[in-house]
Design a protein that fits this description.
337 residues; 5-stranded mixed sheet; 5 strands; single chain
């Protein structure tokens, strides 16, 4: 593999931005992926007017796939002075809460990978059945401690009729108290699992949103496409990893693309740390854990014989897989030097 480093973000106000095809091609010294098709970044919520314009005019991006949760959208929208209540049981969709964060001229799609699945895997659409049973693995619900306790500040935000010592996390969600619920989830589930464990949990429990993401990647009308979450490294990294595996990209290049996010996020590390610590997550969540890509690849190989077996198991058929490959790969999947 080439020793060429991952290109720096061309934007001043959008961190961790890169053209996935260009990055892999430079890392491998080949022309295996089409450039100008798939981009990745951290959240572009605070992008300057110039950077927003360049997303459209310079890079031609027509679609954004946002992998963040409704809670994250509410938090960011409030920072932008949007009139979205944080603790009312309002029936907003994820798309509604993200409305203030959208960029003119770009179509917006939202697909939450983790939040609802970790709370209650069957809250929304049932996941397509796996054709191969997954290996014995972690069940998020079994790791939640009942009864749950809240901080005095969190208790002060709850209605008087809610018995806080025995409040279940799902009750908090249904009542609209998302921040206290997320703090419990982060402290009791996410932190003990770590980023690698959460990545494997997402593969195990979030079949429906992952199916929807792959469906989006299979459509020619989705491109040029920018995928992002909050930092653009974990959920985004997992989705990009699956796509790159499907395109037969060299593992070393996939690893290099993943770990590049750590250096690309240094400028806002302190701010992100404050946000994460505010919901009970530690400093390790700001980085890219060593062995993440290798663990995901091993997990897919062990449980399903590889990425194709896994994708088939969650309902992604051969036509969709070839659609993804056709949208992202040069020619018919042959690397050109």
């Amino acid at each position: 593999m080439s020793k060429t480093k991952v290109p720096d973000s061309p934007f001043s106000s959008i961190l961790n931005f890169r053209d996935v095809g260009q990055t892999i091609n430079q890392l491998t010294g080949t022309n295996i992926l089409r450039e100008g098709r798939l981009f990745r970044s951290a959240r572009p919520d605070d992008a300057s007017s110039e950077d927003k314009k360049n997303l459209v005019d310079t890079y031609g991006i027509t679609n954004i796939l946002d992998l963040r949760s409704k809670t994250e959208h509410i938090s960011q929208a409030q920072k932008h002075a949007a009139r979205i209540p944080s603790s009312a049981a309002a029936p907003q969709t994820n798309d509604d809460t993200a409305e203030p964060l959208k960029i003119p001229g770009i179509r917006f799609r939202a697909s939450t990978l983790m939040e609802t699945k970790l709370v209650k895997p069957d809250v929304f659409l049932p996941s397509p059945p796996l054709t191969h049973p997954p290996p014995p693995h972690f069940s998020p619900n079994s790791h939640l401690t009942w009864p749950l306790s809240l901080t005095p500040k969190e208790e002060s935000h709850l209605p008087n009729h809610l018995p806080t010592p025995n409040s279940h996390i799902l009750t908090l969600f249904l009542l609209g108290y998302r921040t206290p619920a997320i703090r419990i989830l982060a402290t009791e589930v996410m932190s003990p699992r770590g980023l690698t464990g959460l990545g494997l949990d997402t593969l195990t429990h979030s079949h429906t949103p992952l199916f929807q993401v792959l469906h989006t990647l299979s459509l020619p009308t989705s491109y040029p496409l920018l995928i992002h979450c909050t930092q653009g490294k974990d959920r985004t990294g997992l989705v990009v990893l699956l796509a790159l595996l499907l395109c037969n990209c060299p593992p070393a290049a996939i690893v290099a693309d993943y770990v590049a996010s750590e250096g690309a996020l240094v400028a806002e590390r302190e701010e992100r740390l404050k946000e994460m610590m505010g919901i009970g997550l530690g400093e390790e969540f700001a980085g890219c854990p060593e062995g993440f890509v290798e663990s995901v690849v091993g997990f897919l190989e062990e449980g399903w014989g590889g990425v194709r077996g896994y994708l088939e198991g969650i309902g992604v058929d051969g036509e969709m897989m070839e659609g993804v490959r056709g949208n992202l790969m040069v020619g018919e999947g042959r690397a050109e030097r």
